[in-house]
């Protein structure tokens, strides 16, 4: 069941000043996020990602189309009702947005106060949240006494205070180093797995998507240009923008300068084998080459793992009689996508 439904949603910002054009930030987006899913929305700066999440929590109004969250259509709702809906949607931010004058405890108490949760219930809830995010010993610290990773843990605890069904993370790890990023993403996975919170992660980093997302949505100029399971998007990217993002992590069939460099540094015929989890295992492909009396060396690429499934493009320099290589390639092509690159 979809818990977030955007149907033909567009958002046009009016022109900022006379002579400027209106900005079409989100254009005709239809996107249904299933309950329990972790959806990664990736795109370059200005693609419309932040606007999209702000439409989901009603901080921006749609120009056209409808947004429904947990069964409530929020399009056209008055602010008073929207505030209620927002209690069911947690949000975390790149800059954490903590109140610097309040302790960790006070920051987590804040949404409980807004939601008018009786004070008698605060202690148990806050203490539970602090344990959940691993900050039980920091309750009385102020934000500027915490590391970036700890601040984001507070952000997550605060976002979860009112037990939302949906969590929106807008570049939540972009200000963190790689190791802290992994810790925070691990915590977000725990939120999803243990609390069943549907999560939308907005990012411009493919590594974030690979680590956490079940599903990948690629945005460009306000539009969704690709949408699929994380494995499919990584293993078979279709759109040029998706290919560029995937290319930041996964070696592709070499072209351009990479190919020139391989040609200059290796003798023999260069062939890329594109392994997927439903294609021939590597060991059998290599056995085929050995059986044909062909020598080979791995010169480019590697295998990747997404959601426990492996794939990758391995470029080999092959040495042997041309006729033997031709025969082996015919055999291989029937079982694994094979590209002779030079
Ligand atoms: N309040 C606003 N008024 C006018 N234009 C806006 C407003 N908010 C966003 N935009 C414009 O809408 C487009 C999409 O912006 P948005 O912030 O949603 O993109 P993004 O993918 O999140 O990029 P970034 O990662 O840089 O924030 C941009 O051209 C931006 O300048």
UniProtKB/TrEMBL annotation:
<dbReference type="GO" id="GO:0005886">
    <property type="term" value="C:plasma membrane"/>
</dbReference>
<dbReference type="InterPro" id="IPR050086">
    <property type="entry name" value="MetN_ABC_transporter-like"/>
</dbReference>
<keyword id="KW-0029">Amino-acid transport</keyword>
<dbReference type="InterPro" id="IPR027417">
    <property type="entry name" value="P-loop_NTPase"/>
</dbReference>
<protein>
    <submittedName>
        <fullName>D-methionine transport system ATP-binding protein</fullName>
    </submittedName>
</protein>
<dbReference type="Pfam" id="PF09383">
    <property type="entry name" value="NIL"/>
</dbReference>
<feature type="domain" description="ABC transporter">
    <location>
        <begin position="4"/>
        <end position="246"/>
    </location>
</feature>
<keyword id="KW-0067">ATP-binding</keyword>
<dbReference type="InterPro" id="IPR045865">
    <property type="entry name" value="ACT-like_dom_sf"/>
</dbReference>
<keyword id="KW-0813">Transport</keyword>
<dbReference type="InterPro" id="IPR003593">
    <property type="entry name" value="AAA+_ATPase"/>
</dbReference>
<keyword id="KW-0472">Membrane</keyword>
<comment type="function">
    <text>Part of the ABC transporter FtsEX involved in cellular division. Has ATPase activity.</text>
</comment>
<keyword id="KW-1003">Cell membrane</keyword>
<dbReference type="GO" id="GO:0006865">
    <property type="term" value="P:amino acid transport"/>
</dbReference>
<dbReference type="InterPro" id="IPR041701">
    <property type="entry name" value="MetN_ABC"/>
</dbReference>
<dbReference type="GO" id="GO:0016887">
    <property type="term" value="F:ATP hydrolysis activity"/>
</dbReference>
<keyword id="KW-1278">Translocase</keyword>
<dbReference type="InterPro" id="IPR018449">
    <property type="entry name" value="NIL_domain"/>
</dbReference>
<comment type="subunit">
    <text>Homodimer. Forms a membrane-associated complex with FtsX.</text>
</comment>
<dbReference type="Pfam" id="PF00005">
    <property type="entry name" value="ABC_tran"/>
</dbReference>
<dbReference type="GO" id="GO:0005524">
    <property type="term" value="F:ATP binding"/>
</dbReference>
<dbReference type="InterPro" id="IPR017871">
    <property type="entry name" value="ABC_transporter-like_CS"/>
</dbReference>
<keyword id="KW-0547">Nucleotide-binding</keyword>
<comment type="similarity">
    <text>Belongs to the ABC transporter superfamily.</text>
</comment>
<dbReference type="InterPro" id="IPR003439">
    <property type="entry name" value="ABC_transporter-like_ATP-bd"/>
</dbReference>
């Amino acid at each position: 069941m979809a818990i977030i439904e955007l149907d033909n949603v567009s958002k046009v910002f009016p022109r900022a000043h006379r002579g400027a054009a209106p900005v079409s930030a989100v254009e005709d987006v239809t996107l249904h996020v299933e309950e329990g899913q972790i959806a990664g929305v990736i795109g370059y700066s200005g693609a419309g990602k932040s606007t999209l999440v702000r439409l989901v929590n009603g901080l921006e109004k749609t120009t056209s189309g409808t947004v429904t969250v947990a069964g409530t259509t929020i399009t056209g709702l008055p602010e008073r009702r929207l505030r209620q809906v927002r209690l069911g949607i947690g949000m975390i931010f790149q800059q954490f947005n903590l109140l610097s004058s309040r302790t960790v405890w006070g920051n987590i108490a804040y949404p409980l106060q807004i939601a008018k949760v009786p004070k008698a219930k605060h202690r148990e809830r806050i203490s539970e949240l602090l344990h959940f995010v691993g900050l039980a010993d920091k309750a009385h610290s102020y934000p500027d006494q915490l590391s970036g990773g700890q601040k984001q843990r507070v952000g997550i605890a605060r976002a979860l205070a009112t037990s939302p069904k949906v969590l929106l993370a807008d570049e939540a790890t972009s200000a963190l180093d790689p190791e802290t990023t992994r810790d925070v993403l691990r915590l977000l996975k725990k939120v999803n797995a243990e609390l069943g919170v549907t999560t939308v992660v907005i990012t411009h980093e493919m590594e974030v998507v690979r680590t956490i997302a079940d599903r990948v949505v690629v945005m460009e100029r306000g539009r969704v240009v690709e949408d699929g399971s994380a494995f499919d998007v990584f293993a078979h990217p279709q759109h040029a923008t998706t290919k560029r993002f995937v290319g930041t992590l996964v070696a592709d069939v070499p072209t351009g300068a990479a190919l020139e460099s391989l040609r200059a540094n290796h003798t023999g015929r260069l062939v890329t084998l594109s392994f997927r989890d439903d294609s021939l295992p590597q060991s059998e492909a290599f056995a085929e080459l050995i059986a044909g009396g062909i020598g080979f060396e791995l010169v480019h690429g590697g295998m990747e793992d997404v959601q426990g499934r492996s794939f990758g493009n391995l470029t080999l320099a092959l040495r042997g009689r041309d006729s033997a290589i031709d025969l082996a390639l015919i055999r291989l092509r029937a079982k694994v996508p094979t590209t002779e690159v030079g």
